[in-house]
Amino acid sequence: MREVLVYHVDAFTNQRFGGNPAGVVPDATGLTDDDMQNIARELNLSETAFLTPDQRRGDYRIRYFTPKSEIDFCGHATVGASWVLATEYGWKTRVSGISFHTNVGVVAVEWVFNQEGDVDNVFMRQVAPRVRNTEVSPEEIAGIVGINVSDIESNYPIRLGYTGNWHLLVPVASRAAIDAAQPHLTELAEMNAKQQAVTTHLFTFSQEGEPYDIYTRDFGPAVGIPEDPVTGAANGALAGYLVLEGILNSEQRHSLRIAQGDSMGRPGMVFVDIVPGDSPEIRVGGAAVITVTGQLQLD
């Protein structure tokens, strides 16, 4: 019998039982693909991150599994894994950050410290953003996600956005409409699979006085996630879309606060920095809280 150390980490929050829970296996050395898929299924969280130390580089290979399948990138599980390494493995006292080698390239992570020297937030530099057109009409997407077609914000285009995974980005006129969405999950899974999108991401800009800049919800039934509470990958793709589509000035630096998870009773906050350049640099960050540590037993 083998024992595997597993952490349960709530990401994009500083409150236990908020944000998005991720599984983290800090040392996946010797685990097979089937082992990792079985562990992810057993934990039954939206994603579990599996880390394998790379002795040559001094950093880590990281892989991500939903209960259904492997995916190329996951933002909140990266935040969770970074938090575990910084706080439980002493990395915060050695270096200011670390690099993860993912299926889509290197994701560099930096720790941000408070005045007491504790980790306050972690920020990951996602891979270069991309967008592409989609043939999905406002009428079709409105019907599938369960909102009125009049709730689609016509001033902004529906696009597929990417900073590691493709996400279908859908502009919505109000938070109320997003909260009222009741997606038809089977149809949505079929549409996402056809678009090669991991999730469908609804977003709206804040109204005056709200403590965030953008509000979102995210649905991923094609990869076994009916709804994901707070998403780093999808919100990173959204940030890239905003500058690549000219909604935000690509020559200026932007700092965004993106609220998500309220509709699921797991509110969280994603901080996004957009740094101008030949290709915009998307930095996505937030806090995390470790809620469970345990030994998972394998045959």
CATH topology of the largest domain: Diaminopimelate Epimerase, Chain A, domain 1
Please trace the helix and strand order, writing H or E for each element. EEHEEEHEEEEHEEHHEEEHEEEE
Average predicted local confidence, pLDDT: 96
Q: Report the top-level CATH class of the largest domain.
A: Alpha Beta
CATH H-level superfamily of the largest domain: Diaminopimelate Epimerase, Chain A, domain 1
What overall form do the CA principal axes indicate?
Answer: globular
Integer-rounded radius of gyration: 18 Å
Number of domains: 2
Protein model, in words:
The structure is a single chain. The chain has 299 residues and is an alpha+beta fold. It has two domains: 2-126 and 286-298, Diaminopimelate Epimerase, Chain A, domain 1 (Roll); 130-280, Diaminopimelate Epimerase, Chain A, domain 1. The chain is 21% helix and 39% strand. It contains six helices and 18 strands. The chain has helices spanning 33-43, 75-88, 138-145, 175-180, 185-195, 232-244, and strands spanning 2-11, 20-25, 48-54, 59-65, 70-71, 97-102, 105-113, 119-125, 130-132, 159-162, 166-171, 199-205, 214-220, 225-228, 254-260, 268-275, 281-286, 288-298. The chain has an 18-stranded mixed β-sheet that branches. A hairpin with an 8-residue loop joins strand 12 and strand 13 (214-220). The longest helix has 14 residues, at 75-88. 47% of the residues are buried. The model has no long low-confidence stretch (mean pLDDT 96).
